[in-house]
């Protein structure tokens, strides 16, 4: 039985941060100590970190998702499948599409939205790798271009051009998958491979800015050998129904393309800005215990949170690795507040490494302080992914989701 005084904990979003919070919190508090509610748009969690595969069509989207109720303790956590419309921090309420819910403690873990920097036409004419729906849409759109190409009297070769905006980790990983998928599509739809172009446009002077230059070279050479053309130091200025307009050294160029995928950065969920929290591109600079300054009852974690790495004096990048670690800290701190025992702990990131896949069996990365490339790096990436599944759903989930 939950008494009237039982504190209400509401967790918004069942991504890496939200699920980690809930699965840890359900172990830390007794059934009568907290009334925990998890709200998520879908009944499933998706592995955002695999969406580039589903988008290219190299992995079925069902492999990237699992039922939320399979990993939470439904005796302790109430799951509401609904869409958050508004966070009313003054009244401690969350407005959902189908109702509203009040809270004593709120965890905001609603993930990111694509950052379009106000560039003209991007929202209307490009795709983003954001969730299961967008991944499915990208895959279908690409396949449609190939499936219908040969049916036209006057063939438009630009329909077989694919542009990826941004050579950050998302862009590079998606290119790796595309490079493997395109030969399959060419075979399936009798399309001449020579007519297909995969172009990556990157504004910075290098791909994967800030990453180890030797690993960047490896990744670029690998992808170039598979047919990817890089336009480095080139900025996307506009998108329209024909493709994109780019600029390099003040010179404009039009690239006609049937598919443009914008993978050039993210910002925090817009609900965070709309709620009136002080933020930078939708990310709130939280205290070390992950609470919002002057809002002691609100925790923000994952891609909506901003924490400065004191070693580099730059914000930690928005990653699943960090979101999960923040979920653990957040759960511990909520348990302390609820029980009124112990001390709040500070979030400490423990970055084990970063590995970018280059398709099914190649990758580049640094893990446990060691640089690695090729099958070894690819194996490491799979181990990291499996670990994330294991932390939330145990060995059963790993076996269900991976062919190990
Ligand atoms: P998410 O995991 O995105 O979860 C947010 C949840 O909130 C979702 O379930 C969503 O449905 C829900 N939601 C959103 N809006 C609403 C709403 N209005 N109402 C209800 N529910 C809502 N990071 C790594 O560390 N390693 C990687 O290898 C890696 N690979 C990546 C590959 C790709 C293609 C992409 C796009 C990102 C990758 N990242 C990786 C980054 C990583 O995925 C994110 O940093 C991570 O998902 C953030 O976790 P989160 O909990 O903040 O949000
Ligand atoms: P990002 O911000 O890391 O990279 C975006 C890239 O787009 C940058 O290189 C930027 O210079 C470029 N860009 C921006 N505007 C542009 C323009 N107008 N024209 C051309 N290029 C432009 O974003 P991301 O790759 O989406 O990654 C988001 C987060 O997810 C990051 O924190 C990343 O580390 C994480 N992530 C991690 C992995 C992994 O660990 N394997 C994989 C994917 C994403």
From TrEMBL:
Residues 8-327 form the FAD/NAD(P)-binding domain. GO terms for molecular function: oxidoreductase activity. It comes from the Bacteria. Its EC number is 1.6.5.-. Its cofactor is FAD. It holds the Pfam family Pyr_redox_2. Keywords: FAD, Flavoprotein, Oxidoreductase. Belongs to the NADH dehydrogenase family. This is NAD(P)/FAD-dependent oxidoreductase. It comes from Bacillus carboniphilus.
């Amino acid at each position: 039985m939950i008494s009237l005084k039982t504190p209400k904990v509401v967790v918004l979003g069942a991504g890496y941060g939200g699920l980690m919070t809930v699965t840890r919190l359900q172990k830390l508090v007794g059934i009568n100590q907290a009334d925990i509610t998890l709200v998520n748009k879908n009944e499933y969690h998706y592995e955002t970190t695999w969406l580039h595969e589903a988008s290219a069509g190299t992995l079925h989207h069902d492999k990237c998702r699992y039922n939320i109720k399979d990993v939470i303790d439904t005796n302790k956590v109430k799951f509401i499948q609904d869409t958050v419309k508004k966070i009313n921090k003054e009244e401690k309420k969350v407005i959902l599409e189908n109702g509203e819910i009040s809270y004593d403690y709120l965890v905001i873990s609603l993930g990111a939205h694509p950052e379009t920097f106000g560039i003209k036409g991007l929202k209307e004419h490009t795709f983003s790798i954001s969730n299961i729906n967008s991944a499915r849409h990208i895959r279908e759109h690409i396949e449609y271009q190939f499936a219908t190409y040969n049916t036209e009297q006057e063939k438009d070769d630009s329909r077989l051009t694919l542009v990826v905006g941004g050579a950050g980790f998302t862009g590079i990983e998606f290119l790796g998958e595309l490079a493997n998928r395109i030969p399959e599509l060419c075979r399936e739809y009798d399309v001449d491979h020579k007519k297909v172009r995969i172009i990556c446009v990157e504004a910075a002077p290098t791909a994967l800015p800030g990453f180890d230059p030797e690993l960047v070279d490896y990744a670029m050479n690998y992808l170039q050998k598979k047919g990817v053309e890089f336009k480095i130091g080139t900025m996307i200025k506009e998108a329209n129904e024909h493709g994109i307009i780019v600029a390099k050294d003040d010179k404009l160029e039009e690239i006609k393309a049937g598919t443009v995928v914008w993978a050039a950065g993210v910002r925090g969920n817009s609900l965070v800005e709309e709620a009136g929290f002080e933020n930078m591109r939708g990310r709130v600079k939280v205290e070390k215990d992950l609470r919002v300054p002057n809002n002691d009852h609100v925790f923000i974690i994952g891609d909506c949170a901003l924490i400065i790495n004191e070693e580099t004096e730059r914000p930690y990048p928005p990653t699943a690795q960090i979101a999960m670690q923040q979920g653990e800290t957040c759960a511990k701190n909520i348990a302390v507040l609820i029980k009124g025992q112990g001390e709040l702990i500070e979030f400490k990131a423990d970055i084990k490494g970063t590995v970018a896949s280059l398709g099914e069996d190649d990758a580049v990365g640094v893990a446990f302080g060691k640089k690695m490339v090729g099958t070894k790096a690819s194996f490491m990436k799979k181990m990291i992914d499996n670990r994330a599944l294991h932390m939330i759903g145990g060995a059963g989930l790993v076996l269900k989701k991976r062919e190990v």
